[in-house]
Design brief:
The protein has a domain at 5-17 and 76-181. Helices cover 32% and strands 12% of the residues. It has nine helices and seven strands; from the N terminus they run H-E-E-H-H-E-E-E-E-H-H-E-H-H-H-H. The strands form three sheets. Strands 3-4-5 form a three-stranded antiparallel β-sheet. Strands 1-2 form a two-stranded antiparallel sheet. Strands 6-7 form a two-stranded antiparallel ribbon. The protein is globular.
Length: 237
């Protein structure tokens, strides 16, 4: 499912936040968090210090490790690009509906109804409330690779980029959860586009994918015909 260039441009310009003081942020599972200067601070007993954002961190090996230093405050989503009440969820629902959408109020802040295809399962939905907006590449995954080194603006752009957002049913979103392409697949009819999306997002943000995911992408694309573009490795050269 594609989103228009105009929509990508709209969300691509994420407003810079006001100054953020690290003391008012929450804590990750490790018991600490990063400050605005990119340095990690421990606050709770048992916290294990980690490197600053400008240093390379040893790769994680499983989801538990990946979650250790992840803090959702550092990856904000449902932001508005123009200061209005219309956030990235509203914009993605508008752009992907097969019919004109209706809204819950005259300001058109929140979508009520439309027609969406859950590309993960092929099921159709008409009520926006039944839809989850899933991150194709989860912010948690990005944070576990080299995304923790990004500044706030790049993390916010990644989390709100329609290229990385797709409307799916709640059950499909729950089953996929934070899993990567190497751990989970959508329905067979959507696998090629799903693999291409992972490839495009990784290239756009220079995301250093785990080897198993790079391998899965290349394996899928080899079966999808000749018009697949370069492999993940070739795209980054």
């Amino acid at each position: 499912m594609r989103v228009s260039t105009a929509v990508l441009v709209l969300i691509g310009v994420v407003l810079a936040p006001a100054a953020r003081t690290h003391e008012i942020k929450g804590y990750d599972q490790n018991g600490g968090h990063y400050d605005d200067g990119g340095f990690y601070h421990c606050h709770l007993a048992g916290c294990v210090p980690t490197v600053s954002r400008n240093q390379f961190r040893s790769r994680v090996f499983n989801t538990r490790d990946m979650e250790r230093y992840y803090l959702q405050d550092d990856w904000p989503y449902w932001l508005s690009a123009d200061g209005s009440c219309r956030n990235s969820r509203t914009i993605v629902l508008e752009a992907t509906s097969k019919v004109p959408v209706t809204y819950t109020n005259p300001r058109q802040c929140e979508v009520r109804e439309g027609l969406w295809v859950d590309e993960y399962t092929g099921e159709e939905y008409t009520r926006a409330a039944a839809m989850e907006i899933d991150h194709v590449i989860p912010p948690l995954y990005a944070n576990g690779t080299n995304g923790y080194q990004w500044d706030y603006s790049k993390r916010a752009q990644f989390s709100n980029d329609p290229l990385n957002l797709i409307p799916v049913g709640r059950d499909a979103a729950r089953k996929k959860s934070q899993r990567s392409i190497g751990e989970w697949r959508p329905r067979e009819e959507y696998e090629c586009e799903y693999a291409r999306n992972w490839q495009q997002i990784a290239e756009k943000y220079d995301l250093d994918l785990f080897a198993r995911d790079t391998s899965r992408i290349n394996t899928i694309l080899e079966k999808c015909g000749t018009d697949n573009g370069p492999t993940v490795e070739e795209a980054k050269q």
